[in-house]
Amino acid sequence: MLFLFAQDPAAAEVGKLLAGVEALLADPVKNADELDRRFVAVSKVLEANPEVRSRDAALGWLQRLARKTGRPAEALSISKERLKSKTLDPRNLEGAYYQAVYSAALALKPDEVISLVRTLAQEVPRAHLASLREDVERDARNLGRPGPSVTTPAYDGSKAFSWGAETKDKIVILYFTASW
Amino acid sequence: MNQLGQKVKTNGYAVPLAVSLDSEKPALAGYAQRLGKDWTVLCDYKGYDSKAAKDYAVKHAPTTVVLDAQGRIRLGDSLSWLAQDYVEDLWMEAFWAKRRGLPAVGPVEPPTTPPPPAPKAAAEVQWVFELKSGGKIKVISYEEKDGKYVLKLPTGSSTVSKEDVERITKVEPQGK
What we know:
The complex is a heterodimer of chains A (180) and B (176). Helices cover 56% and strands 4% of the residues of chain A.
């Protein structure tokens, strides 16, 4: 990363700020303040230096930092800026769309999810996500809707379960599955 | 799925529920064992006719759906391969919402999280930004720049896109 940012003071500063971020992201609660500090600092450098070298790479990190510091709307904004960037390597276009769709879902923006996946299907028709376009659009329309409570009894041998008592204030992962 | 179940169970911020669409007990027994102890396994032996499968319009297995702490659907099956990171991001959304004094738009802070530092005096807050997503941000001061608001917060600084802001309200000083 440092090589990429060489010979450009602003890029060097960004490189310095992003050094070790991957390790910090391994525990975003413990490192919350440091991640927040770095997000703000990198944002300022990029804002003051729009032509900074390797801006696209920096934006890629910044969108991850935005998500981990509770800024889903900004993560989406950064993801979209990255898609518009003239310096985005075409080889990274599909990945950039994936990140943008992810950010839009996290930011509870169903219209953005639908718009992004449609554009992806036009620009990168062979992308795996493009092949899922109809499913993604259907799921996007359900974003933010209340999930029905699950009253299915616990399987014998599994502990007793009560929806509400055990799911209150918790994220719930529902995994519909079968043994066959 | 075993890894995801283990991770969220260890951290305590999510409930991993496996809703079995099996219709025979012997088949399920072995599967439940393979899934691991971190998952709560539910089953009424009605297969795709079970109420939960119908409620969530499940057409195939496996299908994954993620709900946030307000019970809202936040991730559907088509993006379920993102679930591991996504669940953590939902958790961080709630963590930071609480720190910034915003209403909970995501899950509450998990019990293992250290208490946030005491906020600065509430009197410093001059503005409340109401977001279109339903959240609110308490702001000391702000300026407009390149289609964004640059915010000074009691806990630091942030930026927010203008198009994401529903309303900006001036906070009246208390006692007046």
